[in-house]
Design brief:
about 350 residues, globular, mainly alpha, 15 helices, disordered C terminus, single chain
């Protein structure tokens, strides 16, 4: 009896050491991601755009018969880069333009910000100009993202050879291909599904705001579209901002309240009905993990981290599931305890 217990003590000690090493490695990794955020954030956004370009190019090649096969990639690059550049331009330039146009009631908004900040306990609340000042750095980040994207596109043909050079056998090569396909499928399914959801919310929100007479409808709809990519709170916060500015534009309070109720009901309806149908089990992320991922990546990389929190978590789960020592983490991240159906579930 005593010998049996003694035999297991080294195993328990080794397990404790492994867990301790993994915890320290996770802390060190988090610190490195935070310390190198100015370099890694544009790179992560560029990889995200590269996956979108790759998926769009394959879709064009498969579904647009009149388009030459060789032109699918250039066309996809032009479309995605144009959309990304347009998004940055809209947020940066249109935000400043909106601030100038809103001079008639910006003082009222500053008073509102001061009142909210005072209730929240902030000693030096920001003004409207301070809140919009971050639009200029966004232009600089966009330039670096496009530079990284250009080099990634130039080097993409060598990715398969490099991937196979990292493994030693045919079986390992097939597993590496499956890993890359899982990552690509998971990220692409999220991006395109969420794009449909965000587009529906933005268009329906634009209709509601137009009927109620809100100004700058296109700008607000675009911000709602972008905010919908931030999980959990993005859509809810996005549809909250226009009614707040409606308080400044309208002389009555009825229209802002109607706008708030309508936009929030729209967000809830789409989120509860359409979103589960589009995403299904493609992501297979636990809801608690989604919230924690949002908090973690927002802390590390700010708004860009919040925007990329779901794709980054999907990639992390795919990689962790490939190794026996870290597979338990992937199981915890997954919604049903089975990170990949084709591997874990019996036929």
């Amino acid at each position: 009896m005593t010998d049996h217990r003694t035999d297991h003590r080294p195993d328990r000690g080794a397990t404790s050491v492994r867990v301790g090493v993994m915890v320290l490695a996770a802390i060190a990794t988090g610190f490195a991601l935070w310390a190198l955020r100015s370099i890694l954030t544009p790179l992560a956004l560029a990889i995200f755009l590269l996956l979108m370009i790759d998926g769009l190019a394959r879709g064009l090649a498969q579904r647009v018969s009149w388009l030459p096969k060789w032109s699918s990639l250039p066309v996809a690059i032009v479309i995605i880069v144009a959309l990304f550049a347009g998004a940055i331009w809209a947020v940066a330039d249109n935000a400043a333009h909106f601030a100038r146009q809103a001079g008639g009631y910006s003082a009222r908004l500053n008073v509102l910000i001061v009142d909210i900040a005072a209730r929240a306990g902030f000693q030096a609340p920001p003004t409207l100009d301070d809140l919009l000042a971050d639009a200029s750095p966004a232009k600089v980040v966009a330039v670096f993202v496009l530079i990284y994207l250009g080099f990634l596109i130039a080097a993409r043909r060598g990715f398969p050879n490099k991937l196979h050079s990292l493994v030693t056998g045919a079986a390992e090569g097939l597993e590496a291909d499956r890993l890359f396909e899982r990552i690509r499928t998971g990220v692409e399914s999220y991006v395109w599904g969420q794009s449909i959801i965000a587009g529906i919310i933005a268009l329906a929100s634009a209709a509601i705001m137009t009927v109620l007479g809100l100004q700058h409808v296109v700008f607000w709809a675009f911000l709602i579209f972008l905010a919908s990519f931030i999980p959990v709170i993005g859509g809810a916060v996005g549809v909250l901002i226009p009614p707040l500015f409606g308080l400044l534009q309208f002389s009555d309070i009825a229209r802002p309240i109607i706008m708030l109720v309508g936009l929030e009901l729209l967000h809830i309806a789409v989120g509860q009905v359409l979103q589960p149908r589009l995403h299904g089990k493609n992501l297979n992320l636990d809801p608690v993990v989604v919230v924690l991922a949002l908090a973690f990546w927002s802390l590390i990389w700010g708004v860009a981290g919040a925007f990329l929190s779901i794709p980054l978590t999907v990639i992390a789960m795919a990689v962790l599931a490939e190794f026996r020592s870290t597979r338990w983490i992937a199981v915890l991240l997954s919604s049903d305890g089975q990170p990949y159906a084709e591997v874990d579930r019996p036929a």
